[in-house]
Design goal:
Elements lengths: L11 E5 L5 H7 L2 H9 L2 H5 L3 E5 L14 E4 L11 H15 L4 E4 L1 H9 L3 E4 L5 E9 L15 E8 L1 E5 L5 E5 L7 E5 L2 E4 L7 H13 L5 H4 L6 H13 L9
Parallel strand pairs: 1-2, 1-3, 3-4, 4-11
Antiparallel strand pairs: 5-8, 6-7, 6-9, 9-10, 10-11
Amino acid sequence: MSGRKTAAGKPLLILQTGSASFRVRQKYGDYDRMFVRAAGLAAREAQGLLRCVHVERGERPENPRSYAGVLITGSDAMVSDRPPWSEAAAGWLRDALDAELPIFGVCYGHQLLAHALGGVVEDHPAGLEAGTHDISLRAQAAPEPLLEGAPRRFAANLFHRQTVAALPAGAVVLASSAHDPHQILRYAPMVWSVQFHPEFDGAIMAAIVAEEEESGGLAPERRGDVADAPHAAAILRRFARAIPGLAEDGT
């Protein structure tokens, strides 16, 4: 992906914190490609308005002010292990918040952002949440432009073992699930994170769940049904479209 700035504005950053399994990548691409499809970023990529930085491989993003916004991916890593690359990314995110950069974190990105801002991330006491499950909006979600048009209850695809166990100061909980009370958090007017995966459609979720079942890490009765989750995907797309200075994709 190109990091080139254009007259249309600064590039959107995908801060990649891990990679999908080889089998999933072969069929669906890595996490950055899932974000490009789900958020409607193909035209922006073609215009040079998209950059991917693999922080888990030791790559480092530029100054936050070099970007129009940032999307943070999921990972097989654990935030509570505090690997050096993850701690460096947490520091960068603190700087990004100070610079008022629009931020959207997903799964590991959700937990990393909470950790960076003083929250506590640890193993979920109930273990793995996997498959397609219902997300319920809280009353304080009503005025959120990111959630405009979303029903009070909608399906989302999830795969996580850790959780935001204690919120950072100032974080607002916008949605919960039966398994996890912190499914959508807001930190600032243009800073959100979600525990679920809006970039996963039903086929991707099914492939990930199947691998986990094959390895013995997930009993079939624990995963729930697997399906597309269009309302969850729409949240990611709304974030991308709300970033100032980026041309409309039209997809």
